[in-house]
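Box 3.1. Reading complex inputs
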Amino acid sequence: YDAKRTGASVVTFDPDRHGDTQGLLSTVTELRHAITAGQLRVHFQPQLHTGDGTLAGVEALVRWQHPVRGLLAPAQFLPLAETHGLMDAVTREVLRQSVAQQALWRRRGLLVRVSVNLSAGTLLDVSLPAMVAALLAHHEVPATSLVLEVTETALLREPDRSLAVVEALRALGVQGSIDDFGTGYSSLTQLRQLPVSELKLDRSFTADLLADPRAAAIIAHTIGLAHALRLRVVAEGVEDEATLAALTALGCDETQGFLHARPLPAPEFEAWCAARRGTAPGAPGALVRSG
Ligand code: C2E
Ligand code: MG
Ligand code: MG
Ligand code: MG
């Protein structure tokens, strides 16, 4: 987890607290409690079509509203969840909140795709597809509007087992996405058999696009190959107009980043949609009806 990736509205990591065993143990106990007590919050970051700037989807990103320490970023507690067997519980909670929120939006006319991140361990959980199917059925959300993001390293850790889970999800109609593409050691050639529909260009490439001709060449090549494999390409970490223009020129399908919006709590995301509706006819908020 890259601390630099965290949003601005989070408190800093407290090494003292984690340096001592007592602090660590109490944090694990707190996290276990937090999951059931509703302290995990999901924020949503918009993904926009490069062509017309309309809303394509949102990525759900977890935060921990800690009673004392404030809003914590994923990098501050997901490693702990991972090492203490709490990752599946976190994932289920994020999925539950994301699908429930999506159902509310759909009822109000905002038909938006929602992407949820899966950890490597979750990808080996053979009970995940049935859980996802039940959740979607309960909320009457179509499977095709849910995207599950996995990293290439997670996919390649235990390829056979994770492929079975991805295929079962695909059979439901859920879309797969390869997150942080370019940071692992896999190539698109290795990934060509995977039943996924989206590839996310890692922020490190996006950030270097304008300054480094090699990053630009890699992005151009990746987009070309992805399109040949019928994959949608989403660039993450887009922070300025010039980068957006360059990605658009390269044929990137969608962009996500602070340029458009930071990850936002649902009400703030809805306000963001409404504000765009006010300034740009046909913009994402145009889909939102009041009430
Ligand atoms: P990710 O899936 O690659 O998510 C994108 C991260 O980049 C988010 O950080 C987001 O806030 C940040 N970001 C987005 N646009 C920009 C930008 O323009 N500039 C910069 N500097 N950063 C940007 P966040 O929310 O701190 O999440 C970090 C990582 O934690 C995620 O990376 C993902 O790997 C993991 N994560 C977050 N939520 C979950 C979850 O519910 N489950 C699992 N398993 N992992 C999660
Ligand atoms: Mg992601
Ligand atoms: Mg990513
Ligand atoms: Mg990333």
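In summary: Residues 1-13, 281-291 have pLDDT under 50 and may be disordered.
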